[in-house]
Amino acid sequence: MINRMNRAGRILLWGDQKARRQTPIPDITSREVAELKRFFPRDKFFILGHARSGTTLLTRLVRLHPEIHCNYQAHFFTRKPLLRSLVDTPEAEEWFGRKSNRWNHGRDLSPVVLRAVADYIMERDAVAVGKRIVGDKSPSSAIHGQAVRDLHAVFPDARLVHLVRDGRDVLISERLRNFVEESRFLTAQDRRILAQLRNNPHSFGNAQRSIFTAAMIRRVAGGWATNVAEIHAEGHRLFGRRYYALRYEDLLKEPFDEMTKVWKFLGAGQIAKALEARISKELRVNPDEEWQARRGAGIASFLAKGTAGNWRSVLTDADKRIFKEAAGRVLDSWKYAESADW
């Protein structure tokens, strides 16, 4: 009776949540990593970055190298329910940790199971295309530093690539995606702005009128700043030399030089000069822009997609002030603020 009353109280306060295991999932050990690599020997890497930061472009470029494969958005660590949900129940905890289970060598098997699942998913693709290095690209916009901690708990031997884009351009890209998809999350004020933009897009040109609400700027700018700062800090702390950060703008400016650095970081062998031409060809294709053009031509044509510095012709002075309040310090730290009065 007491247990039922306690459960009823919890449901009343927090809803009927699925029961979680009682003890934390342990980190994988170096011995377990070595054992797993006998079965899944390929080197692993993960590309993280805030949504709308160019991680898809980086994925397309990184897998141009003949030794490297990368695929999209497994969200092992970046979007719920997450990889850990496979073992994050009392039943799984009891099964993998029970003392009579002689297969577990006296230790909870949960981290081994998580690693084996992710290893198999990635290596299955890599085997099919004959490549020895394999990675996943999953943008992270909500979980921030915890994504890096969860990644390290399962893949301490992996490499982490962090792509950062000017948060002001991220804000614009997010807004246009939001408009083109006509998200159910649009507020009444958002819908009024969208209608005005469709009826008279030229009136918004050269930052004459704002395409944002103040609430959206604060939300996106604050989320971008937290995400970038936490991933960078935790990447350095946990992965050390296995962590590499680059800016989207530098990738556009010097694509072959930047990709050469990325490929070397990932452990690729020879980097042929012919890859420079392949990179140039890939950069001329923008599947996201083509998709947006089909979904909403009037909105999608408002400005060029994927370019750097769009914020200069879109953000009003009021927009800039709000963004600066929410994310100015992170912009400064990544050398995006050219002057104090931007």
Descriptive account of the structure:
This protein is α/β, with parallel strands linked by helices. The protein has a single domain, classed as P-loop containing nucleotide triphosphate hydrolases (Rossmann fold). Helix content is 53%, strand content 8%. The chain contains 16 helices and 5 strands. Strands 2-3-1-4-5 form a 5-stranded parallel sheet, with helices on both faces. Helix 6 (145-154) packs parallel to helix 9 (214-239), helix 7 crosses helix 9 and helix 9 packs parallel to helix 16. The radius of gyration is 23 Å and the shape is globular.
Can you tell me the CATH superfamily?
Answer: P-loop containing nucleotide triphosphate hydrolases
Q: What is the residue-averaged pLDDT?
A: 91
- Low-confidence stretches are 13-17
CATH class: Alpha Beta
Strand count, sense and closure of the main sheet? 5 strands, parallel
Give the fraction of residues assigned to helices: 40-55%
Number of separate structural domains: 1
Structural class: alpha/beta
Largest sheet, order of strands side by side? 2-3-1-4-5
Number-wise, the strands total 5
Provide the β-strand percentage band. Answer: 5-15%
Q: How far apart are the first and last residues' alpha carbons, in Å? A: 64 Å
CATH topology: Rossmann fold
Q: In the CATH classification, which architecture applies?
A: 3-Layer(aba) Sandwich
Which oligomeric form is depicted?
Answer: single chain
What is the overall shape?
globular
Q: What series of H and E elements makes up the topology?
A: HHEHEHHEHEHHHEHHHHHHH
Number of helices: 16
CA-atom Rg in angstroms:
23 Å
